[in-house]
Amino acid sequence: MQRSTDWVVLNGNLHPELSPEFFLKNRAFRLGDGFFETLRVIHGSVHLWDAHYARIKACCKALEIEIPTVYSSDYMRNSIYKLLEQNGINAGGRIRMTFFREGEGTYRPESNRLGFVIEAKTIHQREFLVKDQGISIDVFTELKKSFSRLSPFKLMGNHVYIQAAVWAQANNLIDALIINDHNRIIEATSSNVFIVKNGAIHTPAVDSGCVGGVMRMAVINAAIRDGIPIFESEIDINDIIFADEVFLTNAVTGISWVGSFRNKRYYHKLSDRLIAKINRAESVDA
Question: Does the keyword Transferase belong to this entry (predicted)?
């Protein structure tokens, strides 16, 4: 069979594409009633799957979406591998899983049953890489993100992230930092944020309003295993300015080190060390 990179999975079944009718009736498209996960394929294996599935279950509980018994961890993971094989992805890749409430209706749904779509694209790198050049960032202050039972999850239609990314682009920045109602820095547009000061790592707690990132937890665990002091702390602009290092994390890029914040420049020794440790662990597991 000829392979195509356009195949998708809908509720566990392979499809060459999704029909226009699907989007017209889908609640995630019409109302933003859903959430998503992005995952990385490393050496042909789905990275940190158990942590992703735990977050999928937690988000469904928070949104009061019912997971059918058949949609077990093994069922969803096997659906991913079925798509990877169909699309010829056997080394590095990027996966997006979009979850939604099935059925139609307005704000009052006709059903609370979970549905899902999986997309997969090739990434030529087989593991996480440290880029030669750090990224530029600043703080986006026009909108704030509040803490709630939904804030730890990657929800559809989160305009704070979109507006922050548009602002960063207009200001020739690679990314923007987002603040909460208390003017504390909590994350970037698609990443968690970490700072390094005097050999210790600090990152905002989930109850500050940031997403409970899967790679965030992987970095915390890697630091603990390596004996690096790490703390959940409030972070403000002064903490960014006086940090020795700043880096961002997400499930697809791994760790992205920050090269500049306004006139400040940073090192990236500890972030290099952590990404090497995560790559070694994944290589052993593979």
Answer: yes
Spell out the domain ranges in the chain: 8-122, 135-285
Residue 2 pLDDT > 50, yes or no?
Answer: no
CATH T-level assignment (fold) for domain 8-122? D-amino Acid Aminotransferase; Chain A, domain 1 (3.30.470)
pLDDT digits (tens, 9 = 90+) for 156-184: 989 999 999 999 999 999 999 999 999 99
Query: How far apart, in whole angstroms, are the C-alpha atoms of residue 81 and residue 97?
Result: 13
Q: Is 192 exposed, middle or buried (0-12, 13-18, 19+ CB in 10 A)?
A: buried
pLDDT at 197: 97
| Alpha carbon distance 249, 188 (integer Å) | 9
Q: Distance between CA 271 and CA 13 in Å, rounded? A: 39
CA-CA distances (angstroms) from residue 113 to 14, 16, 61, 156, 256?
A: 20, 24, 12, 17, 37
How many angstroms separate the CA atoms of 19 and 70, rounded? 24
Which of 114, 41, 36, 104 has the alpha carbon at shortest distance from 75?
114
In the predicted model, is pLDDT for residue 286 greater than 60? Answer: no
> 227: Cβ–Cβ under 8 A, 6 or more apart, which residues?
none
CB count, 10 Å around CB of 66? Answer: 14
CATH code: domain 135-285 is 3.20.10.10
Tens digits of residue pLDDT in 201-248: 999 999 999 999 999 999 999 999 999 999 999 999 999 999 999 999
Whether the CB-CB separation of 63 and 150 falls below 8 Å is answered with: yes
